[in-house]
Every structure is written in C-alpha cells, then in structure tokens.
Amino acid sequence: MQKLHHRIDNIRTDYINKIIAEIVKTQPSYITVEDLNISGMMKNRHLSKAAASQKFYKFNTKLQAKCKEYGIEQRTVDRWFPSSKTCHCCKHIKKDLEFSNVTVVISKTKISMLHLI
C-alpha cells in the first residue's frame, strides 16, 4: 500500500513539473495565480482529503522558482477578484454570470472560458 501511495505522489509531482515547464516555455510576460483559501478547504470535511493531496504549496513554490529563473513576473490575485466574470478583451464585468452560462474550451495549447452573455 505504501508503494502505491509513493507512486501516486511521484505521478502528481511529475505532473506539477510538466505543467510548470509548459507554462514557462510559452515565455509570458507575467503569470497570475489566485490566492486560494487552503485552510478553509481543509476545514471542509468534503474537500479536505482532495485539497491535501493536490500539493498547492508545492506547485506555487516551484512556479515562483521557475518564474524567478526565467525572469517572469508572478502576480497573486485575491480570491474574490471576479476573474471568471471579466471579459479578457474589453474588461467588462458581468455581475450576474452563473456557471451554467460558461463554456470551457480545451485544446492542446490553452484552456479558454467563453462567457455566453
């Protein structure tokens, strides 16, 4: 059982490394990361096990190190910032946007959220 947990841990760590390498390889001028309420997630009995296994801290520290290495600015956004309600083109904020009105498009190069207004 311990071998299985170790293998899963290695798979997650490898995935984190690959995602960070993929992000940094695109050479963005900055990377924005949301400030998540991890301690609140850990108090929720339905989320605590999943949140603990995701390695948010490890992801963030590795991303910070890579950003520093490649000279990329890393920004942290408040968890209450309405990023999914803000249009990336015109910056218009749709206050009453519900998740049922959002379409997520996934391709090999990027993930986009299209808001159906």
Concise synopsis of the structure shown:
The protein is of the alpha+beta class and 117 residues long. It has helices spanning 2-25, 38-43, 48-53, 56-70; strands at 30-34, 73-77, 102-106, 111-115. It starts with a helix and ends with a strand.
Describe this structure in words.
The protein is an alpha+beta fold and 117 residues long. The protein folds into two domains: 80 residues, no CATH class; 36 residues, no CATH class. Helices cover 44% and strands 17% of the residues. The chain has a two-stranded parallel sheet. A hairpin with a 4-residue loop joins strand 3 and strand 4. Helix 1 packs parallel to helix 4. The termini are far apart. The C terminus is likely disordered.
Largest sheet: 2 strands, parallel
H and E order: HEHHHEEE
Please state the average pLDDT score: 75
In DSSP terms (H or I, runs of 4 or more residues), the helix count works out at 4
Low-confidence stretches: 104-108, 110-117
Q: How much helix is in the residues?
A: 40-55%
Q: Estimate the strand proportion.
A: 15-25%
Query: Strand sequence of the main sheet, in spatial order?
Result: 1-2
Q: How many domains would you count in the coordinates?
A: 2
Structural class: alpha+beta
Keywords: DNA-binding
Pfam families: Cas12f1-like_TNB
InterPro entries: Cas12f1-like_TNB (IPR010095)
GO molecular function, one term: DNA binding
What is the topological layout?
Layout: H1 2-25, E1 30-34, H2 38-43, H3 48-53, H4 56-70, E2 73-77, E3 102-106, E4 111-115
Parallel strand pairs: 1-2
Antiparallel strand pairs: 3-4
Helix pairs in contact: 1-4
